[in-house]
C-alpha cells in the first residue's frame, strides 16, 4: 500500500542573530545557535532537533510496540550522538543510538525492541533518499 503524508512547518527569524521560531500545527518551538557560533543560545540548534526527532520517534515506536504486546516496559531512554565531518565539499554524518530499557524484560524482548527501533518513521526517512526542492515565494 502506497501512502503519501504531508507535513508543513514554518520557520521565522527576525531580530536576534539566529533565534528562529518554528511553527508546526499549533505548536511553536524556538531554535538557535550556541554563542560560540554567533547565536544567543536560547534554544537547541537545528542538528540537535534532528537528533531529537530520531530519539523521540524511536522512543514512541518502541513504547507503542511494547504496549501492544503488553510487555512490562516502564521506560525507554534513547540517546543519539551525531558526528559530522567534511572534506572537499563532502559531508559525512554518522548517528549512533543507544537504547536503555527499564522494566522486567527478558533478553528476547530487549532484542526485539532493538529491532523495532529501526522501524521508526524518522529512522526510515533518514536511511532513504531525501529530495529537497527550494523555491522562492
What's the short version?
The chain has two domains: 6-43; 45-129, GMP Synthetase, Chain A, domain 3, CATH 3.30.300.20.
Protein topology:
Blueprint: E1 9-13, E2 20-24, E3 27-31, H1 46-69, E4 73-87, E5 90-103, H2 107-117, H3 121-127
Antiparallel strand pairs: 1-2, 2-3, 4-5
Task: Report on this structure.
It is a single chain. This protein is of the alpha+beta class and 137 residues long. The chain folds into two domains: 6-43; 45-129, GMP Synthetase, Chain A, domain 3 (2-Layer Sandwich), CATH 3.30.300. Helices cover 31% and strands 32% of the residues. It is built from three helices and five strands. It has helices at 46-69, 107-117, 121-127, and strands at residues 9-13, 20-24, 27-31, 73-87, 90-103. Strands 1-2-3 form a three-stranded antiparallel sheet, with no helix packed on it. A two-stranded antiparallel ribbon has the order 4-5. A hairpin with a 2-residue loop joins strand 4 and strand 5. The two termini are 34 Å apart. 9% of the residues are buried.
Q: Helical region count?
A: 3
N-to-C span = 34 Å
What is the CATH superfamily of the largest domain?
A: K homology (KH) domain
Number of domains: 2
Helix content percent band:
25-40%
In round numbers, the mean pLDDT is 95
Class of the largest domain, according to the CATH hierarchy? Alpha Beta
Order of helices and strands: EEEHEEHH
Output the keywords.
3 helices, 137 residues, alpha+beta, GMP Synthetase, Chain A, domain 3, 31% helix, two-stranded antiparallel ribbon, 32% strand
